[in-house]
Design the sequence.
């Protein structure tokens, strides 16, 4: 019987009542008295020198309050980067200044030059047209390899080159890897691109700045995944506002996918301008503006070599990757192609020697940062593509080559050669589960049917491992993170027994209000409706690091469990007093405290009331009240894994792909709410398959964004996707967090692109087109052209 | 994008050359041109209203001549700022050569570049748009020099006086 409450129950998402009835409270729903509106005038050239800005005509227009330019920000800090990567020589990365508004030069289409503040958004937009900006256009650097060439135009004149860093990992293994590749019985090589993406959350970014002169307090309402991080970065590094005078609120947020992690210039701007004008300032991003101002994702160009011995065991992996940083370093950009990518190159396999080289490059494009999966999809894609190619070259079944090289269940905990240690996993189990769910054995019959219908059918396999629950603070500190990565929670019990949990995690669609309540309700044995989850406001929640990297339940959930345990321990003492028993004999079950071995009991609500009305209470031993806070710093990452199978049909006449079936057999450890987990996997698969088939961000040679609207940037739609088969019955619980959970938010986006591409390549081979690789997105024209190239 | 095309104009080279340098002709010929002022030597200031796919904008910009070889060749360059719509830049290299029948063959190579919202929203249609603009410009130019082909069968065929029909530019010149 499935449970209808608590851990393991598919409780309905309580937040959907407001989301589905139009009663959510998003940042754009916040309107303050005497509010003004900001419009950002952005560069329409990719690279240029600003000769002059004349805002006098705009400022003279009716309804215009003020026009801000860089000169208004003299003495104000730039936008900081939150992670420092050290290069192969041990030197820190090159870190350019990132001003709030362009100073002297513009460096990408969309770089903000000036901001018009007016009484309405329309007046601000109109007045922006009257701002005269004289820019001398300079040659733009767009292609990463060209940007690294001798004599290339520099994005930042004060840096020595366009190379942010040249990173080697693990540098000490370099020679051994070279040697292993030289001595290998077989080496499979693949060059590929991980296409640049635009995150496109349903809600574009919005920021509202407010300032209260009476108490010198600033408030920023913003579409953020981590309000405390924004408060810290903006308060301490940009505007110099002490944290007790700065409140950051991220109310309902309509999707983030990574791009709302980062601290953006617009947030600092509205906060600054609200004080300068002594009026609230609101900025609402349009969809077109989002394309040129939200941080983009992916954009790696990689060469990978996989060495195998005569028994088809993997002996070494060597990769060389160019990773696009864009024009400035976004908050976590340097960490994505390095510590979130290189450390995952072992995948599910026992490869003993790995060397990853990453060159991060500045170009005249929008900054690139974490996007659903962040580094792990890039690692998984190249690894699973090269393993598939190796299987074909060796004439092996791709599932069997993987199985032969899997880390086996008895090898855990497993130390990889790329610094991480997997605590648990069972890769054979997820492979077997996926095989069972897809009728792998019946594929040949189905392929014959497709052939009879003039179509080519293919089957693609991908395995993934990911590192979630970022992360042990002492570890990431060594790796260059400029923040800790714990999480916090306060469990506040009210006098009548209901509970408010203040979490440092942030929900922007994930369903924390439901899942987190299930955990606390389950621990105490009360109804879920008695627990509310509060998040997204620095004035209400303890210092928290926010939500990204599938960390909420693993880190935020663990903090909440620790705080709830403290509450329960204290409540047991109160119960012991009320029942005149020893603390150690008190048991809590189904909301009742009882004395072991007796029929004495007292209800949860009565204990809570005693804590707040302490008439009969051990005041000399414990304080009144029932509220506890915990901070949880994880001991390790968590390592979800899974087997993803994709079955496609390709039309040889047009190159069009139809996904006929997609199976995801995941190991997420323990699962709190299976329905929500399934929803997360569905969303991840849609985004991963969107990347693999449809989405692509394209710049021309001059740095103009050509795919800047939904006319040219193809988002996945329901009809592009099959009915997914999703299973998470293979569970190897995490060994180091109290819930045994691993995280499920990004898995779908990580494992699905290689599964789809492998399936299409398989279909083409079976159809007589020996195509080795097609870069994503696999649009009909790319598939068809690849077919013609081998005809 | 780049494109090359040519037109045969029923007028001698000197007439075609003079027409190319005329501000009035230029204003008539630039599609969507609302205002133009200036001289061939100093360049022209122009205001042009155009719709590129979903983006309609008023472009303010400059048109200038360069690489002028009297009676033979010149390069026409335009550079317009469309405010929120972004910018458009374009150029046409024009070459003139005599035709055996006394007419002139005008060959043009057009290059166009857009930026900002025009590129963001209109990239897929920009090539077609530039070709249409160029074709329209030289069509207008031909009409200005020759006069409109009121009856094209007649113009090309039997009646020799049809070829004598003057465009307004020729009338102005009294040629």
Sequence:
């Amino acid at each position: 019987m499935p449970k209808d409450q608590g851990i393991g129950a598919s409780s309905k998402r309580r937040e959907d009542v407001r989301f589905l009835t139009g009663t959510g409270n998003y940042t754009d729903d916040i309107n303050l008295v005497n509010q003004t509106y900001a419009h950002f005038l952005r560069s329409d050239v990719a690279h240029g020198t600003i000769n002059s800005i004349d805002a006098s005509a705009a400022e003279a227009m009716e309804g215009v309050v003020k026009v801000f330019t860089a000169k208004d920000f003299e003495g104000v800090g730039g936008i900081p980067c939150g992670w420092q990567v050290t290069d192969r020589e041990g030197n820190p990365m090159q870190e350019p200044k990132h001003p709030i508004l362009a100073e002297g030069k513009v460096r990408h289409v969309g770089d903000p030059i000036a901001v018009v503040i007016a009484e309405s958004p329309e007046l601000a937009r109109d007045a922006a047209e009257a701002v005269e900006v004289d820019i001398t256009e300079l040659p733009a650097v767009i292609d990463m390899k060209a940007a690294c060439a001798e004599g290339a135009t520099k994005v930042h004149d004060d840096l020595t080159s366009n190379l942010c860093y040249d990173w080697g990992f693990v540098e000490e293994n370099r020679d051994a890897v070279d040697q292993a590749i030289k001595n290998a019985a077989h080496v499979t090589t693949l060059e590929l691109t991980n296409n640049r993406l635009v995150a496109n959350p349903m809600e574009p970014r919005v920021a509202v700045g407010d300032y209260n002169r009476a108490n010198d307090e600033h408030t920023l309402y913003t579409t953020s995944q981590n309000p405390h991080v924004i408060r810290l970065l903006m308060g301490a590094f940009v505007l110099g506002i002490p944290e007790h005078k700065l409140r950051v609120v991220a109310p309902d947020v309509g999707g983030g996918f990574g791009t709302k992690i980062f601290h953006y210039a617009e947030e600092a701007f509205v906060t600054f301008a609200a004080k300068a004008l002594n009026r609230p300032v609101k900025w609402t991003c349009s969809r077109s503006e989002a394309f040129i101002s939200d941080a983009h994702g992916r954009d790696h160009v990689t060469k990978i070599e996989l060495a195998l011995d005569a028994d088809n065991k993997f002996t070494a992996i060597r990769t060389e990757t160019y990773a696009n940083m864009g024009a400035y370093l976004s908050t976590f950009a340097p960490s994505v192609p390095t510590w979130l990518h290189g450390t995952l190159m072992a995948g599910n396999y026992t490869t003993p020697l790995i060397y990853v080289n990453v060159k991060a490059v500045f170009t005249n494009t929008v900054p690139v940062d974490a996007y659903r999966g962040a580094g792990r999809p890039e690692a998984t894609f190249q690894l699973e593509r090269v393993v598939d190619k190796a299987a074909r070259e060796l004439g092996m079944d791709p599932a069997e080559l993987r199985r032969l090289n899997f880390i086996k269940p008895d090898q855990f905990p497993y130390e990889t050669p790329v610094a991480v240690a997997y605590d648990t996993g069972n890769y054979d189990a997820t492979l077997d589960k996926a095989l069972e769910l897809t009728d792998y054995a019946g594929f040949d019959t189905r392929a014959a049917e497709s052939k009879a219908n003039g179509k080519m059918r293919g089957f693609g396999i991908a395995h993934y491992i990911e590192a979630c629950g970022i992360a042990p603070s002492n570890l990431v500190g060594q790796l260059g993170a400029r923040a800790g990565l714990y999480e916090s929670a306060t469990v506040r019990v009210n006098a009548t027994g209901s509970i408010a949990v203040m979490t440092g995690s942030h929900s922007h669609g994930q369903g924390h209000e439901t899942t987190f309540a299930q955990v606390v309700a389950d621990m105490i044995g009360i109804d879920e409706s008695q627990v509310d989850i509060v998040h997204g406001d620095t004035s209400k929640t303890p210092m928290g690091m926010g939500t990204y990297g599938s960390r909420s339940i693993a880190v935020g959930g663990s903090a909440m469990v620790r705080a709830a345990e403290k509450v329960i321990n204290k409540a047991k003492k109160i119960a012991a007093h009320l029942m005149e028993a020893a603390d150690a004999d008190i048991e809590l079950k189904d909301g009742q405290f009882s004395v072991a071995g007796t029929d004495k009991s007292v209800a949860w609500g009565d204990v809570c009331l005693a804590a707040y009305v302490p008439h009969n209470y051990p005041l000399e031993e414990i304080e009144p009240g029932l509220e506890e806070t915990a901070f949880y710093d994880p001991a390790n990452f968590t390592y979800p894994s899974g087997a993803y199978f994709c079955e496609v049909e390709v039309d040889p006449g047009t190159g069009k792909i139809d996904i006929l079936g997609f199976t995801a057999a995941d190991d997420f450890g323990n699962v709190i709410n299976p329905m929500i987990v399934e929803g997360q996997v569905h969303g991840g698969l849609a985004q991963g398959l969107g990347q693999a088939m449809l989405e692509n961000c394209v710049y021309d040679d001059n740095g103009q964004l050509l795919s800047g609207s939904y006319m040219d940037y193809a988002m996945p739609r329901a009809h592009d996707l099959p009915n997914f088969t999703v299973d998470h019955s293979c569970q190897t619980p995490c060994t180091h967090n109290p819930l045994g959970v691993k995280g499920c938010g990004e898995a779908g986006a990580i494992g699905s692109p290689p599964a789809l591409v492998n399936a299409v390549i398989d279909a083409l081979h079976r159809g007589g087109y020996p195509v080795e690789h097609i870069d994503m997105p696999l649009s009909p024209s790319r598939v068809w052209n690849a077919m013609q190239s081998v005809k | 994008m780049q494109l090359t095309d040519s037109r045969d104009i029923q007028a001698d080279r000197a007439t075609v050359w003079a027409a190319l340098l005329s501000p009035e002709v230029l204003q008539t010929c630039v599609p969507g041109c609302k205002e133009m002022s200036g001289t061939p030597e100093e360049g022209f200031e122009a205001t042009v209203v155009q719709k590129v796919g979903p983006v309609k904008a008023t472009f303010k910009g400059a048109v200038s001549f360069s690489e002028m070889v009297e009676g033979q060749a010149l390069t026409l360059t335009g550079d317009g700022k469309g405010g929120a719509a972004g910018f458009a830049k374009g150029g046409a290299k024009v070459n003139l050569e005599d035709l055996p029948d006394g007419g002139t063959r005008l060959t043009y190579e057009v290059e166009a570049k857009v930026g900002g919202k025009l590129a963001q929203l209109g990239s897929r249609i920009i090539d077609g748009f530039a070709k249409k603009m160029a074709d329209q410009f030289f069509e207008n130019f031909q009409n200005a020099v020759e006069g409109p082909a009121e009856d094209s069968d007649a113009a090309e065929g039997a009646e020799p006086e049809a070829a004598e029909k003057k465009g307004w530019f020729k009338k102005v010149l009294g040629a």
